[in-house]
Amino acid sequence: MNLIRFKPVLDEAAAGLQLRSDYVSDAKTAMYRLSGLNKLRSTIEKLLEVPALAPEVYHLKDSWLFKNYLDVLEVVNSEDTTIKELVSRLKIKIEVLMYLINSQIKANPEILISVEIPEIQGFDTLEKYANDLKKVIEIPITDEAIGGSVEIVSADGGSIVLYIIVGSIAAVKLVAGICWAAAVIRKKNAEAKIIEAGAKSLDLNNNVMKEIADGIIKQHKQLINDEAEALAAKYYSTAEPEAVERLKLSINIFSVLMDKGIKILPLPSKNEPEIKFPDYNLLNTIQSDIKQINDDK
Description:
Radius of gyration: 26 Å
Oligomer: single chain
Structural class: alpha+beta
Shape: elongated
Largest sheet: 4 strands, antiparallel
Distance between the termini: 43 Å
Number of strands: 7
Helix content: 55-70%
């Protein structure tokens, strides 16, 4: 089992597995007032997605903690001890998992991205995807101004998920920009196909159809050129024609890979909002980032 994909939920759990226990005097029995129970329960629920933690999580789920949903509760000594011990075991196991994850990453997790590839039928397809992803990720980020590199540190089975260290925050931002631009191109291509299909349904003559087709091609070339030039101007020290052409290739290739179900994503982190990858569930609503890039210059 690959653990890297569970890092975000484990990071969050470190702060959420907190339990305040205060001794309160009682004439008959030693009682403890426990508070922050709702946040504790919520954190435990989220850890259900980590298979390695299943025994500890289910022990807690079977305990008195989940028999009610009060945020503050007074309990007897044995109940206080039981929960503290179960939470302590869970924390220890999380620490072990985090040690294993960090030993895999060996770098700042903010320069880690994942590539999700649907199930493939053979090595020929895998080789093609590998060559395409090299053009999408590796070639554009190895520019001196970006300081990027590629190191595949891990992979999940089934539908393949590759975990790749790209060498620098600038490299992650450039990859995000390429993905965003590719999503814009993909959307525009889909709109162009609708226009072309609509024109064909009108039974127009060949000359008119050729004008429409030529216009669509010209618009596509201009848009992809604009997206590539904007990225080059923002991320490279000089927007040389060669750099722009490489970015155009990267954008174009990934716009096609998206239709095959391939996704490139960052490892979620506290700084994630600063690095904007497209929402692959809302690709049809995406807007070009060119204006924002120009405003940032």
